[in-house]
């Protein structure tokens, strides 16, 4: 066991992503005592590296915001990470297995932010006022860790398993529907694998964005006008593989889909 700095841990994780290779957990291989605060510093190094490579942030994202996800991953706190432009797949497009390690899909409601949201003390109501549109989304997560097995600091350091995202094309004002009551089905090859409602995410998906604004405020950051933000999976994530046609259907928000190829 060698003690290494946050930059080196970030490089270790980026190598897993780029080389599509499963890694041993950071807390097992490099730094057993990694704290949550340190893990966010590792994540920041990953973000800085990607920005220096010319990649652009679409928005921060929230994860582990539903009981279904927290139970599935055995981690009991919401986290955030960052989604970049190179991760985006067009609606109806293709996810290539060769770009992934062991991908899973999640159905989420995304928020298109119309005005900066600066914590602390932000409420879901304020988020809804400052949200321009809500859109349906499918997130593809691809933990760099063996068997998607991690602790809270490990998954934070790994940019919250973020890998790809597909946004739907329908834009709804958040006042046009009750986001907590939006029913969602997640189908693979026409078969329902998971289903739920927006309320699974902290009672209301806007709560996740409020929590994000409040978490970001601890380091002097904010939710920004123009950010497109995933509020977290409504149901458990589902393993996907070559040949799968994945469809998320959201009541009042429309459909999102993609196909998995070799
Ligand atoms: C961490 C990412 C969780 C969500 O929506 O809950 C996430 C993981 O489960 O690997 O993106
Ligand atoms: Mg997610």
Task: State the gist of this model.
The protein is α+β, with helices and mostly antiparallel strands.
Give a quick set of tags describing it.
single chain, 262 residues, alpha+beta, Fumarylacetoacetate hydrolase, domain 2, 6-stranded mixed beta sheet, 7 helices, 13 strands, 29% strand, globular, binds 2-oxoadipic acid, binds magnesium ion
Query: In this structure, how is the largest beta sheet organized?
Result: 6 strands, mixed
What form results from the Cα inertia axes? globular
Superfamily (CATH H level) name = Fumarylacetoacetase-like, C-terminal domain
Bound molecules: 2-oxoadipic acid, magnesium ion
Sheet-strand content, in percent, reads 25-35%
Tell me what the structure shows.
The chain has 262 residues and is of the alpha+beta class. The chain has one domain (6-261): Fumarylacetoacetase-like, C-terminal domain (Fumarylacetoacetate hydrolase, domain 2). Helix content is 25%, strand content 29%. The protein is built from seven helices and 13 strands. It has helices spanning 6-18, 26-29, 36-52, 67-73, 124-129, 152-157, 205-217; strands at 57-63, 79-84, 88-89, 94-96, 104-113, 131-141, 162-167, 183-188, 191-197, 228-230, 238-239, 245-250, 254-261. Strands 3, 5, 6, 7, 10 and 11 form a six-stranded mixed β-sheet that branches. A five-stranded mixed β-sheet has the order 4-13-12-8-9, with no helix packed on it. A two-stranded antiparallel ribbon has the order 1-2. Strand 12 (245-250) and strand 13 (254-261) form a beta hairpin. It is globular. The N and C termini lie far apart (37 Å). Magnesium ion binds at residues 63, 106, 108, 139, 141, 230, 232-233. The site of magnesium ion has 8 residues, from strand 5 and strand 6.
């Amino acid at each position: 066991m060698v003690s290494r700095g946050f930059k080196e841990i970030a490089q270790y994780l980026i190598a897993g992503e780029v080389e599509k290779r499963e890694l041993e957990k950071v807390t097992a291989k490099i730094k057993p005592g990694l704290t949550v605060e340190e893990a966010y510093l590792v994540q920041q190094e990953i973000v800085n590296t990607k920005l220096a490579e010319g990649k652009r942030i679409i928005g921060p994202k929230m994860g582990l915001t539903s009981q279904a996800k927290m139970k599935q991953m055995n981690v009991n706190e919401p986290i955030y990470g960052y989604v970049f432009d190179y991760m985006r797949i067009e609606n109806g497009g293709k996810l290539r297995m060769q770009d992934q390690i062991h991908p899973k899909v999640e159905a989420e409601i995304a928020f298109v932010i119309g005005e900066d949201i600066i914590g602390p003390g932000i409420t879901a109501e304020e988020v809804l006022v400052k949200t321009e549109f809500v859109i349906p989304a499918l997130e593809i997560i691809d933990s760099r860790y063996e068997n998607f097995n991690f602790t809270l600091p490990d998954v934070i350091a790994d940019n919250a398993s973020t890998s790809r995202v597909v946004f739907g094309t329908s834009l709804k004002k958040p006042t046009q529907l009750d986001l907590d009551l939006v029913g969602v089905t997640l189908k693979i090859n026409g078969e329902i694998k998971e289903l739920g409602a927006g309320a699974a995410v902290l009672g209301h998906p806007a709560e996740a964005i409020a929590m994000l604004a409040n978490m970001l405020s601890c380091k002097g950051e904010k939710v920004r006008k123009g950010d497109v933000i995933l509020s977290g999976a409504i149901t458990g994530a589902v393993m996907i593989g070559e040949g799968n046609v994945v469809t998320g259907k959201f009541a009042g928000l429309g459909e999102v889909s993609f196909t998995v190829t070799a």
